[in-house]
Amino acid sequence: MNDRNKDLFFENEEGEITAITLTDDDGNTVEVQVMASMEIEDEEKEYIAVLPIEGTEQFPDDQLIILIYSEDEEGNPQYCGISDEEELLEVSEAFMEYFASEDA
Predict the structure, then answer these.
(1) How far is CA 53 from CA 2, 25, 82, 87, in A?
(2) Exposed, middle or buried: residue 13 (CB in 10 Å: 0-12, 13-18, 19+)?
(3) Of 12, 27, 53, 55, which has the fewest CB atoms closer than 10 Å, so is most exposed?
(4) Where are the alpha helices (DSSP H) in the chain?
(5) Which of 54, 46, 51, 56 lies closest to 33 in space, CA to CA?
(6) SS3 at position 4
(7) Beta strand 45-52 with 29-40: parallel, antiparallel or unpaired?
(8) DSSP line for 43-68
(9) Alpha-carbon span 77 to 48, nearest angstrom
(10) Order of strands, edge to edge, in the sheet holding 19-23?
(11) How many CA atoms lie within 13 A of 100 on its CB side?
(12) pLDDT tens-digit profile of 61-96?
């Protein structure tokens, strides 16, 4: 993740939230907040964990969404869902460990 996007997602004023609008394949949108990002070497990809700001039936506000994170040639963020179940399990476990260590 480039420095500009790190600052955008994680260096906000106290209490300020950067919202990202995601759109699924059916055209449903949800505004989310980035909670964490990490690179997993085994997958050679970067991932972000986001939470809906206002939950919906499809996107409850207490359900973490994990996405593949990349950047286009101009450094703009791009997000993609994880379709491989094994990859999703590995990444989910890594984020669970990360959040557990943050709470300790």
Answers:
(1) 24, 20, 21, 26
(2) exposed
(3) 27
(4) 3-10, 85-103
(5) 51
(6) helix
(7) antiparallel
(8) TTEEEEEEEESS--SSS-TTS-EEEE
(9) 11
(10) 19-23, 29-40, 45-52, 65-71, 77-80
(11) 6
(12) 888 999 999 999 998 899 999 999 999 999 999 999
**Which among 45, 46, 44 is positioned nearest to 6, based on CA atoms?**
46
Place of tokens 């970067």: 46
Structural tokens at position 28: 């449903």
Tokens of 95: 């984020």
- Tens digits of residue pLDDT in 22-51: 888 888 888 998 888 888 877 689 999 999
The token pair that represents 75 in the structure block:
């450094």
Q: Please tell me the distance from the alpha carbon of residue 31 to that of residue 96, in angstroms, as a whole number.
A: 22
Nearest CA to 48 out of 63, 32, 37, 35 is that of 37
CB 46 within 8 A of CB 1: yes
The two tokens of residue 57 are 């039936």
Structure tokens at 39: 């690179």
